[in-house]
Amino acid sequence: MENLLQLLDFMEEYTDRILPVAFLLLAAEIIFPKSRYTYVSRLRGAIFCVTNILITKASLTLFYWFWAGIGIKPLFAIDLTFLSKFSNAWPLHLLGAIAASFLVLQVSEFFYYWFHRLQHSNSFFWRFHAEHHSLEEMSAFNSNHHFSEEIFRIPFLIIPVSLLFDFKQDYVPWIWVFFVRWQGYFEHSSTRLNLGWVRYVFPDNRFHRIHHSVERQHFNKNFGSGSAIWDILFGTAYYPKAAEWPDVGLPNIREPQNLTEFLVRPFRRGRHS
């Protein structure tokens, strides 16, 4: 009975947090299309997405249970609650809470940025990341990373941040949480809608499309996912012109056609440059 309740809680969490984003972006891609993709591709991507979430959720649950049992304390305890308490006026209180979350996001994104660069420079990690880059029909829900990548984030992202920092912050506004989750799917979407000047801080679909481009001048650009700041600082940012919308995919690897290929192909094939 307890396992059933946990499953229902997870399904409710998935429904509340993911489905609204899915429907909004699907509508945007249909009403304001930038590339027209098949519904078979979208359905296949949705299946990959759900599978990826289930495996990742199970893996992270086990890890956090193990990590809590170890009880290792981080080196630095950083209290950011003052940012949302310096004023009683609710607009400033809200902005302070967002600013605190933004700072935490940038720390996490620093580690993700370098992990992502490692995925492109190391042949072992590339064989898994190539599943993501092999997509030729890249839409919001046909752009899922291989599940192994989420597990690799544990040693390269979650553990370093957990060892270094313990952030304390006030409440996180729900609209901000929704935007951050929405942005991660939106940056892979094939809609004409974009974030305009906001992409200089948060990558949008035009910015991230360059990272998946088949054109050589775009190689090794725009590694950031939730932030463009580290790309700017480390010289890998490329901001496309208004009409710049390159083809995506890999010349030597076709996109996965079924769930079996999606799950096991990286473990079977040899190295690819």
UniProtKB/TrEMBL annotation:
Localisation: Membrane
Keyword field contains Signal: no
InterPro entries recorded: Fatty_acid_hydroxylase, Sterol_Desaturase_Related
Membrane-spanning intervals of the chain: 17-33, 45-70, 90-115
ATP-binding listed as a keyword: no
Naturally occurring in which organism (per UniProt): Rhizobium dioscoreae
Span of domain Fatty acid hydroxylase: 103-236
Name this protein carries in UniProt: Fatty acid hydroxylase domain-containing protein
Swiss-Prot/TrEMBL keywords: Membrane, Transmembrane, Transmembrane helix
